[in-house]
Design a protein that fits this description.
- The protein has 509 residues and is α+β, with helices and mostly antiparallel strands.
- Helix content is 44%, strand content 11%.
- The protein has a five-stranded antiparallel sheet with strand order 13-14-15-16-17, with helices on one face. A three-stranded antiparallel sheet has the order 3-4-6.
- The longest helix is centred in the middle third of the chain and has 21 residues, at 292-312.
- Residues 1-16 have low confidence and may be disordered.
């Protein structure tokens, strides 16, 4: 009862703190005391009374790890980024639901919110309020997916009392199945959004053992999972039936979505066993309908779903469906998702259509080709992955590899070819095996915050002051996750004493 009372009190804090500056403005200028390193990076966490959630476990991790890191600038970046989601993006929660925004966009993206919270999962067994908050993210996502399984971003829930924000990303769009803009922010169908919900559910249970996500709202989680599997089934259907009729389960066109070809249906897809998508993880429309990083994530998360349900002894029908689909997608991925190139050998394509079309590139947004080991699809030593990594991280193999004196790495058509995304460099770090290369990427990341001490969405390869999004919570969480991983697995790179960071010891201390 005490925990619930404290949480109820905390709900009032953001509303009570009328003097707290909006972080969208706060994040655009240096605040706080500079770090003692050569970059003098500012302290960019809001005052305690202005934070949207406080976690005792997070504070323990921050205090212990930063005190032991040998690079003061890197330590300051970890301090600012690791807690950023909790500090700034939890707009409302109660005992069962949590509404979290992406940062400077006032909506909850399924994919972003999962990636914002993943970094905290190892802590939920040691921090009951944080566990409850994370469970609320899953519960609300289950509701959203049950209502609008093809949609990717959402407005606040009615219980919050928060108004629907204007103006939705789908203002002026034509969408089928139809959406409701009092609930939906954008209805861009992204397979990875649905898979992210499965991932957060699985990993939350692994760390918490909390099975209440299966029973909340009369088993609404299972309704969401059934919707995910139905979308996957439908989107594995080819464009043409046996009589040549065109089949489409989802159409979208509109000024803010980029126009999809073929009256909003998108490019045709052959009968391959792969799962179609309309948007990439970047929110850009696909060139070809079968995004290969999506397929890799689907294999892992569908098997993970089956394993989760086996562990709790529930829904053998879903277990069987998920296992069968994972196997069919994996077989199709290895058949259709690799391409033999003259310069790089056999590589993974970024997208294919099953008719011979293939996009040879990568995109920095996860899931990406570089992130395959992070997704747990293949090991970094896999020969096709190794070839692919060399190709997409080269100036001659990837049309969207930007390079210059400021930063070099994977760029994205979501902005343009000359803006490299720090998120892509973080993926290089978490999947990297070469110590010198990892340190090089960390230097780029440290030196491209424009002195603001937070991760940007993208940075111009020749002008560090030309960046997008000063407040991008997903990338901040991802950077915090990367530093925590290095402290645990490659402590000689970041720790003064070279000793591995032990999360359990710190949390129990």
């Amino acid at each position: 009862m005490l925990v619930r009372a404290l949480r109820s009190l905390f709900v009032l804090l953001p509303a009570a703190s009328a003097t707290c500056e909006d972080f969208a403005t706060y994040s655009t200028r240096p605040e706080g005391t500079p770090s003692t390193g050569p970059l003098g990076l500012p302290f960019m966490r809001p005052d305690v009374g202005c934070r949207t959630f406080n976690s005792s476990a997070v504070e323990k991790v921050v205090a212990n790890l930063t005190s032991r890191m040998k690079d003061p600038d890197l330590a300051r970046l970890f301090e600012n980024t690791y807690a950023n989601t909790l500090d700034t993006t939890v707009k409302w929660f109660n005992d069962n639901l949590t509404f979290v925004v992406t940062g400077d966009i006032p909506a909850e993206w399924l994919r972003d919110s999962v990636n914002q919270f993943k970094v905290y999962l190892p802590l939920v067994g040691h921090d009951e309020p944080l566990k409850q908050l994370t469970r609320g993210v899953i519960n609300l996502q289950a509701r959203y997916i049950t209502q609008f399984p093809y949609c990717n971003a959402f407005q606040p829930p009615p219980e919050s009392g928060l108004p629907a924000e204007c103006c939705s990303g789908d203002t002026g769009a034509a969408v089928s199945p139809p959406e409701n803009l009092t609930i939906v922010w954008t209805c861009g169908y992204e397979l990875d959004s649905l898979l992210s919900f499965l991932q957060l559910s699985r990993r939350y249970y692994e760390f918490s053992g909390d099975d209440s996500i299966f029973t909340f709202d009369n088993g609404g989680w299972f309704n969401a999972v059934e919707n995910v599997l139905q979308v996957i089934h439908d989107q594995a259907t080819p464009t043409y039936d046996a009589a040549g009729n065109v089949i489409s389960f989802y159409n979208i066109s509109g000024p803010n979505q980029q126009y999809m070809k073929n009256d909003g249906r998108g490019p045709p897809k052959a009968n391959t066993g792969l799962i179609g998508t309309t948007y990439r993880p970047s929110d850009d429309v696909v060139y070809f309908p079968y995004n290969i990083p999506h397929q890799a994530m689907a294999v892992v998360e569908l098997r993970g779903l089956a394993s989760l349900l086996r562990s709790v002894g529930l829904r053998p029908d879903i277990q069987a469906t998920a296992t069968a689909r994972a196997s069919s997608v994996e077989t199709a991925l290895w058949k259709w998702g690799t391409v033999l190139t003259k310069d790089w050998g056999e590589v993974f394509a970024y997208e294919v259509d099953g008719f011979g079309g293939a996009a040879i590139q990568d995109d920095p947004n996860v899931p990406s080709l570089v992130s395959f080991p992070y997704l747990e699809f293949v090991n970094a030593s896999n020969s096709i992955y190794a070839n692919t990594r060399k190709m997409v991280l080269s100036t001659t193999g990837n049309p969207y590899y930007g390079f210059g004196p400021v930063i070099r790495g994977v760029s994205s058509p979501h902005i343009d070819e000359k803006h490299v995304w720090p998120m892509g460099l973080i993926s290089e770090v978490v999947t990297g095996t070469d110590d010198d290369d990892i340190l090089t990427k960390l230097e780029f990341l440290k030196n491209t915050t424009t002195g603001l001490g937070l991760m940007h969405e993208s940075v111009n390869t020749h002008n560090v002051t030309d960046y997008t999004r000063p407040w991008f919570a997903w990338c901040n969480s991802y950077f915090g996750e990367a530093i925590l991983q290095l402290a645990q697995t490659k402590p000689h790179l970041v720790m003064k004493d070279g000793d591995a960071f032990n999360l359990t010891t710190v949390l129990l201390g």
